[in-house]
Amino acid sequence: MTTKNTFAFDVWRSVVLAHLIRHWGMPKYRSSSKLKTSETPIEIYTFSDVDGITKFATIGLSCQKRGSTYFGKELILVLPTHEVATTAKRTAVVNYLMRIAVHYMKHAHKNSFFLIPPSDRAPESWVAKGILIDAPRGEPRGFERLEMAKTEIFFKWVAPLTAQEYSIITREGNDVFFKWINKHKIGLIDVTPTRKVVRRAGSA
């Protein structure tokens, strides 16, 4: 990366990280990867356990170029802390989130949400191996959007889905799905076999 590009990314990172720290507190870990097609890295920050919850966020996805414009989106993932209690578990989650970020950047469209079918690339212990990428839920007002110079950055939530939940969205849509999980109090951050399952006619 050239000195000019390094400085530009340092500024970009500082602004995005300050936004996350303001809402989540100080991060505990950082990892970084660089795509073959870009000089700009994508970093993943792990934020400390609060009330049994650990949060992850990308920084650098938003400043990857698609054509002549910045991608303009970062991803967040929220998990129970016990699912990332060891270095091996945390590393598996970070690697998986990086795969999701690259896939999302390549294939994202203008729809309000984005789906990835269930895949064995998810961490082995997870029962929720599909992915919904949508607007953040449970975050404070003002979290979702960050304006930097003339660029808007939007934070998108990575929500793990079971095969049944993925089927509901593909058949009936996102709004029906969220009404259903709210009705049955299904926690989308629970990726373990303890995740609540409610039978629904016509779903997998």
The count of DSSP E runs of length 2 or more, i.e. the number of strands, is 10
Helix tally equals 4
Poorly predicted segments: none
Element-level helix/strand string: HEEEEEEHEEEEHH
Q: Write down the overall geometry.
A: globular
Helical percent range?
Answer: 25-40%
Separation, N- and C-terminal Cα atoms: 47 Å
- Major β-sheet profile: 8 strands, mixed
Radius of gyration: 17 Å
- The overall average pLDDT, rounded, is 91
| Sheet/helix structural class | alpha+beta
Beta fraction of the residues? Answer: 25-35%
Label this structure with key terms.
204 residues; alpha+beta; 8-stranded mixed beta sheet; two-stranded antiparallel ribbon; globular
Give a description of the structure.
The protein is α+β, with helices and mostly antiparallel strands and 204 residues long. Helix content is 31%, strand content 29%. It is built from four helices and ten strands; from the N terminus they run αββββββαββββαα.
Structure in a nutshell:
The chain has 204 residues and is α+β, with helices and mostly antiparallel strands. 31% of the residues lie in helices and 29% in strands.
Write the layout of secondary structure elements.
Layout: H1 3-24, E1 27-34, E2 41-50, E3 53-59, E4 65-66, E5 69-70, E6 73-80, H2 87-107, E7 114-116, E8 130-134, E9 145-148, E10 151-161, H3 163-172, H4 174-184
Parallel strand pairs: 6-10
Antiparallel strand pairs: 1-2, 2-3, 3-6, 4-5, 7-8, 8-10, 9-10
Helix pairs in contact: 3-4
